[in-house]
Amino acid sequence: MDNVTLLLEGFATAMQPEYLLYALLGVTLGTAVGVLPGIGPAMTVALLLPLTYTLEPTAALIIFAGIYYGGMYGGSTTSILLNTPGESSSIVTALEGNKMAKAGRGAAALATAAIGSFVAGTIATVLLTVLAPTIADLAVTLGPPDYFALMVVAFVTVAALLGSSISRGLASLALGLFAGLIGTDTLSGQPRLTMGMSVLADGIDVVVVAVGFFAVGEALYVASRLRHGPVEVVPLGGKWMTREFWARSWKPWLRGTAIGFPIGTIPAGGADVSTFLSYAAEKKLAKRPEEFGKGAIEGVAGPEAANNAAAAGVLVPLLTLGLPTTATAAVIVAAFQSYGIQPGPQLFTNNPAMVWALIASLYIGNVMLLVLNLPLVKIWVKVLQIPRPYLYAGILLFAALGTYAVNFIVEDLVVLLVIGVVGFFMRRHGYPVAPAVVGMILGPMAEEQLRRTLTISQGNPVALVDSPFAMVAYGLLALVLITTLVLRLRRNKVDEVKVPA
């Protein structure tokens, strides 16, 4: 009952006009960036990180959570009407959704995506509410080797699964771990890898890294690949939801939720894997399999539900263990740390008011998103008409101003430019940037837990795997990697239908 009381108190906080406005701002920005191809929630959160320092932590995190959820919703609009996924997790939606739109059923495709996202998001947030405090209580009992094992799991799975190549993902992770070592050693007080530069004595600011990779680097990369000519949008046609569409959609919504949430809670590829798995399940269970590839509504309903359920699932390890399993989650961890708050098992004890207000805002944000997505879809389509040069020039300007505003140090802009150029070349050559950010955020924490373990065991490395929890974690790591690689092979078969970039 204590958790119910805390949740009600969280609603009392989140329902205040000020926080409602922040939630509305977050979901609106999230939907807008989800609609725009190439601008995802990770970039938007990174871009806004320096600009929200004047806000209190609860307000800033409510905005970021709204952006995260809104981005999942908005990606379906361009997938259906433009056949251009705004997010990688919306690729599957484009397979059937765009076919529905071309067949004059675009309104139904958008409706089943929006309603399915609302249903899945609400159910998944309920599961988050129930599971998170329990997992946090269990996590308090973990020791240094257990935490080190968890971070190894996060390192390997994020590096191996957030890209097309395992070797490139591991190389990106190594770059992030190296960057995390720069600065002053907390134990010895000696500078490490600073090259005699005073600006690096305190290490590279995580906010600068996040903005550099996800805003500057991504903006340069997407801008370099812009298509010329007008954007061709399929006209919105047909009825929103008929009785037949309701009957064919509600089971895929529930199945997508059941698939997406557990996959989101483990470092197994998040929404990308869950959407492809949901699509495969719907195709296998469909009463009309011949419609798949031609505009089956089940192929939109299931993956969109899985997409949003996985988004809520990602928040479970983030809030309870401090482990980010997606690019956006990594930037949200950086947002927590920028306020001196470390997400993890102590979060529910040390900052209960903030975390329960954040969870309550997710329920409110889901309702706002449903209201925003259905009636205002024509407005979101007009967002696509923004001239791309203005858009990306604005992103670079805000990135520079926001970074300078963090410490008011010109050298930070030089570091930002260097990281942005590195991020651009990483994206251009197929190296995912998320493992680098995860490595920099979790690297110092993993080093601390490793040192504690070896100090307690007097240098005996066996202590790293001597804990029952650590052994289970490493065993699950092997299982997740094998399972996800199998799923990736299945996804490649589904991906035979080409979607233009």
TrEMBL record:
<feature type="transmembrane region" description="Helical">
    <location>
        <begin position="147"/>
        <end position="163"/>
    </location>
</feature>
<dbReference type="InterPro" id="IPR002823">
    <property type="entry name" value="DUF112_TM"/>
</dbReference>
<feature type="transmembrane region" description="Helical">
    <location>
        <begin position="199"/>
        <end position="222"/>
    </location>
</feature>
<feature type="transmembrane region" description="Helical">
    <location>
        <begin position="45"/>
        <end position="69"/>
    </location>
</feature>
<feature type="transmembrane region" description="Helical">
    <location>
        <begin position="389"/>
        <end position="410"/>
    </location>
</feature>
<feature type="transmembrane region" description="Helical">
    <location>
        <begin position="108"/>
        <end position="135"/>
    </location>
</feature>
<feature type="transmembrane region" description="Helical">
    <location>
        <begin position="356"/>
        <end position="377"/>
    </location>
</feature>
<protein>
    <submittedName>
        <fullName>Putative tricarboxylic transport membrane protein</fullName>
    </submittedName>
</protein>
<feature type="transmembrane region" description="Helical">
    <location>
        <begin position="314"/>
        <end position="336"/>
    </location>
</feature>
<keyword id="KW-0472">Membrane</keyword>
<feature type="transmembrane region" description="Helical">
    <location>
        <begin position="170"/>
        <end position="187"/>
    </location>
</feature>
<feature type="transmembrane region" description="Helical">
    <location>
        <begin position="20"/>
        <end position="39"/>
    </location>
</feature>
<keyword id="KW-0812">Transmembrane</keyword>
<feature type="transmembrane region" description="Helical">
    <location>
        <begin position="469"/>
        <end position="489"/>
    </location>
</feature>
<feature type="domain" description="DUF112">
    <location>
        <begin position="20"/>
        <end position="437"/>
    </location>
</feature>
<keyword id="KW-1133">Transmembrane helix</keyword>
<dbReference type="Pfam" id="PF01970">
    <property type="entry name" value="TctA"/>
</dbReference>
